[in-house]
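Allow me, if you will, to draw on your knowledge of protein folds for a short while. I have a record of one protein: its chain in single-letter code and its fold written as discrete structure tokens. Could you please explain, in whatever detail you think fit, how the structure tokens follow from the sequence? The record follows directly beneath this note:
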Amino acid sequence: MTGLTRAAQELRETKTSEYFSLSHHPLDYRILLMDEDQDRIYVGSKDHILSLNINNISQEPLSHGCGNFVRVIQAFNRTHLYVCGSGAFSPVCTYLNRGRRSEDQVFMIDSKCESGKGRCSFNPNVNTVSVMIKPMFVDAHVIPDGTDPNDAKVYFFFKEKLTDNSRSTKQIHSMIARICPNDTGGLRSLVNKWTTFLKARLVCSVTDEDGPETHFDELEDVFLLETDNPRTTLVYGIFTTSSSVFKGSAVCVYHLSDIQTVFNGPFAHKEGPNHQLISYQGRIPYPRPGTCPGGAFTPNMRTTKEFPDDVVTFIRNHPLMYNSIYPIHRRPLIVRTGTDYKYTKIAVDRVNAADGRYHVLFLGTGKYLSSN
């Protein structure tokens, strides 16, 4: 008996596992992806991609022939998977519509394929390790939240592409996310994943005279100007436009207290793929999702694994805050358009002068350094 066979027998003896097979013939099960958002496990094999119910894998799976050895399965967005196969020694990749929710019962491969060279091995006997890179991180800071050090949060500043159901990129949004430094994941759900992760949109825009807003979508750099009171900390950000027609840079300044107010505010909720985001009006579980264990509001909880199941489920389904974060006076501090350069870096210092105290901004570009 081989070590692998012995391990399988010992696992069956624990009676904590379930057996599944699509066929009596070997189908080369080798790659899988667990999707806790929809309670599914996606399994890649020869000629098939399987969608199994996490809670009952013996249910008849949703499947679709793919005609090759599937070696890559990655979540692309809330509705699609990105899958690649060996393609008879000519790797191919495509998108698979899994639906937005598990009850949608959608499992359909896109008719259009693209080359999988460099993403998937052409040899089906070679194992493939893959990762899907989506957010573009800019900066991160640990910031206190109250007097209890266990309530401190790690704030991530990043930008992400938003896509519609047809996978065509609509726009880039600048975002702030925060987690607890002592987040160790959930016990039954979100295992080895963040259970305190929340994010909100960071807005830097100007309003034209005729009404429409011009957004500086792409966050380039962040600088925190700290004070003795963390709530009065100022967050300076450099933003640029993603438009190929209108080019420019802007500096926006935010009160940390305004950022924390948004994270303590309503959660975004969406009834379905064709619905707009609304403010969640239902019951919010206790402790409030995003709260750190061992802090002022949860002194008896030592770890995120002690969070109730409804807290973990809620934050898994509602990671986005409903309100966006706007700068002081709801407009940029500095705007530069029509130039052959853009701002890329920022640093800020406090300077005492005879007529008062000033904040001096050092703005870096690809060509020279200026101060304002």
Helices lie at 3-13, 256-263, 309-317. Residues 284 and 297 are 15 Å apart (CA to CA). The two ends are 74 Å apart (CA to CA). Residues 165-169 have pLDDT under 50 and may be disordered.
